[in-house]
Amino acid sequence: MPTAQELSGMQDTLLREEILVREARALGLDQNDLIVRNRLVQKMEFLTTSLSQALEPEEAVLRAHLEQNSDRFALQAEVAFEQVYLGQGATHDDVSAALDALNAGASSERYNTSSLLPTMQPLAPRRQVDGRFGQGFFVALKDMPLRAWGGPVQSGYGIHLVYLLERNAPQLPPFESIKEDVLFDWRRGLTNELSEAQFQTLKAKYDVETLGPAQLTDRLSQ
């Protein structure tokens, strides 16, 4: 429990704050103040956010939201492969000869030109593959058959032959494993809808005059 002296000090602080706030308002210090305006906007938006965050939808609602927005929650497509780098100057004949030999069982080391690129790429999504081999490399493997040497594939470094080891298509995780993520996304969408509906309701209370470009520029410069 606070002491009598501590309570007296708290009361003095509150009294000082209240008097200063009232006098500041009387002087109009809260007008045309961006910090005050932003804070008021935040408080209004917080009211809407609090409402949406408190709602607990039925599981059927969440499952329907997941079905309608499955692309937001699907695991990314991935590929794993071995690659042989033929360099930048490989000709059509060089590519054909290497491809035939590799599919006939020749060692990939025989044709691999020295580089800093890895010869083996474990399962990885598009962003990781393209980040390592250059933009478009992942897409170039889209229709390549599994367990066979194919190509040529052009990267930001040169020409490659690729042996596709594994390909995982985009897939949706089990609902229970992403339920909280779906709930968060559903609430976020609801917040946006409620916020816009609230704004339109409040806007209807006012006569709105639209400023022209010159007037708007003058207003913003004030």
**Which structural class do the helices and strands define?**
alpha+beta
Helix content: 40-55%
Q: Give, in order, the helices and strands.
A: HHHEHEHHEEHH
* Largest beta-sheet characterization: 4 strands, antiparallel
Regarding quaternary structure, how should these chains be classified?
single chain
Number of helices: 8
Q: Indicate the CATH class of the domain at 78-168.
A: Alpha Beta
Task: Please tag this protein with its features.
alpha+beta, Chitinase A, domain 3, 8 helices, 4 strands
Q: How would you describe what is shown here?
A:
The chain is 52% helix and 14% strand. The protein is built from 8 helices and 4 strands; from the N terminus they run αααβαβααββαα. With 222 residues, the protein is of the alpha+beta class. Strands 2-1-4-3 form a 4-stranded antiparallel beta sheet. Helix 2 crosses helix 7 (175-203) and helix 3 crosses helix 7 (175-203). Strand 3 and strand 4 form a beta hairpin.
In short:
The protein is α+β, with helices and mostly antiparallel strands.
Topology:
Layout: H1 4-26, H2 34-54, H3 59-68, E1 78-87, H4 92-103, E2 120-125, H5 126-133, H6 137-140, E3 149-154, E4 159-168, H7 175-203, H8 213-221
Antiparallel strand pairs: 1-2, 1-4, 3-4
Helix pairs in contact: 2-7, 3-7
